[in-house]
Records
---
Amino acid sequence: MAGLGAARTLRVAGIATVIFEKSRGLGGRVATRYLGDYAFDHGATVISPRGSELERVILEELPTDELVDVTAPIYLAHDDRVTAVDPEGGKIKRYAYAKGNSTLGRLLGEGIESRLEMRVEEISKNGPHYLIDGESFSHVILNPPIPQSEVLLASLGDKRSFPGAQYRKCLSVMFGVASEIDRPYHAILDPNQSQPLTWLSLEHVKCPGGFRAPDGHAAVVVQMSARYSRYSYERSDEDILRETWVDVKRVLELGKVGYEVSSVMRWRYSHSSNTIGFETANPHGAKVLVVGDGLSGARTHQAYETGVRAARQILEDI
């Protein structure tokens, strides 16, 4: 999202920009996985831009025909009890895209030249310009998690390092269920982060209409606690699925219901648990800038804003 915020801001200003992306699509952890007839937002399950620049772009500049206003509330889970309390009082607008939140990355990236499935492992210098895969650029914006950005900076001989930036791992587990799971909430949150299961999203409730699961079926995304994810990160999918499904059945009171499709996503750099300041990372006049949630916080709109800020700094330099 930070890289897209930068690229879109530069493109609007008339600056030729290229995105290098190691994945098959744009958007980073605003990602969707498709398993048969099921669709799971296994990264950011909702987008709550809170009056930010990203919200303005979503509502005023991008197509909204697939945008869903998520109205079903969030409930709290404590000691296996689910209570009807929204921790944000229903005041925060939450959005999703009907066919998957990865739609946001695709929309933001329209009209921007992109090199997909391309891993950048080093950057070199040629006079005043920077070379990436043989292409020459006046400026570079680094959007990977901070530890990976440090490696790219080092390839340039840039000694900037940010030991204060820290991330935690997260296991995101997906289940497609051939049974109806109808609940008055779209998600459950463990506010104390005391249980292995800390966030559960009912994708078919969040985006009704058969976009996330066939009629009479359910799509469930579970995000596990930092502690569980850290200790189980290298374990097999089979072990993680078995243990997580026990928790899902208990919390949702599903009885003997089983699942028909499943998947595990390992996010090595899931949440920035400690951040550094934008000015610390990007001194005035820098030609190589660092952006992302390691500078701002884990929310989507916060990461996007760092990209916008970097683009504006480049525009001032130009």
---
Amino acid sequence: MSNQQLSSKPQEKQTLLNKLRSGKAQRVLVMLTFMLVPLLLLFVFTYLPFIKMVQFSFYNRTYLDEGTWVGLKNYIDVFQRDDIFGSLAVSLYYMGGSVVQLALALFFASLMVFKAKGSAIYKACMFFPYLICGIAVGFIFKFFYAHGYVLDSILGLFGVALEDCPLWLQDMRINNIALVGTSVWRYTGQNMVLFLGAMMSVDNELYEAASLDGAGRWQQFKYIILPSIKTIIVLNLILSISGSLSAFEPPYVITNGTMGTGTYFVIMNRIAHENQKVGLACAMAIVLLAIIILCTVGQNLFFKYVFKDGAEDDAVRAQRKAERKAARLAKAKKGVA
């Protein structure tokens, strides 16, 4: 018996080694090895800081001290302080600007998909602002809107006196609109390229058939392009509106959030770094995350409800139409009987 046991142990070890040396085991080990480092980095630099941020949001603390436990006081302050929750109203300007930005991008992309002259150069010029750093864009427009500088000089060429030019960054009636213009200028080209890529994926035979049937550019856009790129339009609209809640660079660089231009991110940066209220800033970040999630889910449900018929396949729509027609005929026969 003892000899059999001794002979079985090397056999078991050999079997385990053979399993580890097999192709399937090697593939599993390689996958686990390549996944380990990204997952470790993701946990260390994403999930662990998020857990600590949630923990800090229940404390009244700075960067240096441990602080004291305050419970939900920071979250209550987020909704009670006018300078914090009121700054979300500034995001409405950026939401409106995102709609204008998408409309312009869709218009310019539609022009280029119909083989306009010089479309390659035009596309490069439109996309170039997106390649510029956001901080650099802020400095460019800081001098562009300065009183007596670029914009006022351009208006002067059209006969507008310098005294009649408004203070673009000091007038609280128009300063947020001026700042939104910087975001529209920067991101229109990016959305235009996305729309153009979706439009180029449409079969050219559809355009040719529509032209033979006498359809103009507007009819081709309305009945061919728009239904084909509806998904990318909805996606861009959701991303733009969600991103408008976290606008930071234009108001921070150009006005430093003064004169009613402070967005939620600018106020949060001021509270965290200038006022050293880390717990309150962490609570603001979590509240903003919840608002963005709610807005994204709400937009998805809204567009799913609005475009539920357009999302269906043609065959499915035809089948349902036939079923409804058959149901009406059956009801009519019953009424006659």
---
Amino acid sequence: MPADFPKGRLDRTISELYPDLSRSFVQKLIETGAVRLDGKPARAATKVGPGDVVSIEIPPPQPTRLVPEYIPLNVIYEDKDVVVLDKPPGLVVHPAPGHPTGTLVHALLARYPDIRIGVTIRPGIVHRLDKDTSGLMVIARTDQALNSLIQQMKERAVAKEYLVLVHGRIGVQKGVIEAPIGRHPTQRKLMAVVPQGRPARTNFEVVLDLNGYTLVRARLETGRTHQIRVHFAHIGHPVAGDRVYGPRKVDLPLDRQFLHACRLGFKSPGTGRWLEFESPLPPDLAVVLDYLRGLQHGSDCAEA
């Protein structure tokens, strides 16, 4: 177990360390003996903490046929080549262990039956957002569009910006985090800044300083897994609400990481015309900013 993880239930701790594994799936793994604590079978309610050795054997995924599911989607643009949507938090992008159904892919297949392109379980998926990250995504509707968007991303020609609340006051108005990202050397489901990692670059600009937190606008030049979360944790300012790369205890009215894909721009695969979209901060994150503003104003009044 990571040294900075406090004691907690085995099932909850594993699901927090590995967000792609739902807690119910973890509990099933524990029931079948696929999770061992210090080499022995354990119960879901067993308390674990730093120094404990937890091993997890995840069975290989069973071949499944994707069945369309009618899940509401907030589509803000569509043409014959692409779909741009505003993903809500809590929606998994594609099937994974613990999430065989109810994903964005299932919803896309229901709304766009002709989108069966690319990799079998990820039809049309060009990039992904974590389950608890909200905001803009572009989906390809044809193989030509898929290849065009992938190439644009390789050439860093796609504009991707995020609104992010991080712990602490950064102290500079603008900055660049450039640090290679790869698999964590011991926690293989996590990412980390490691010398042998792939190049990763995040530009940021401070929007607001709020009572011990900083709201920043982050622009990605690369698209590594968990890039924003890993980079800001690396410089000592983890994303608020991120219980994996930041403090496990959250002192805000926040049930997820404060991370929202607010701007997306790319060239239309069909026309070559630049397309750009923006998404306002969702209500659950706006509430957090209002809460912090209230604390800050209260502090100002007390000092006056």
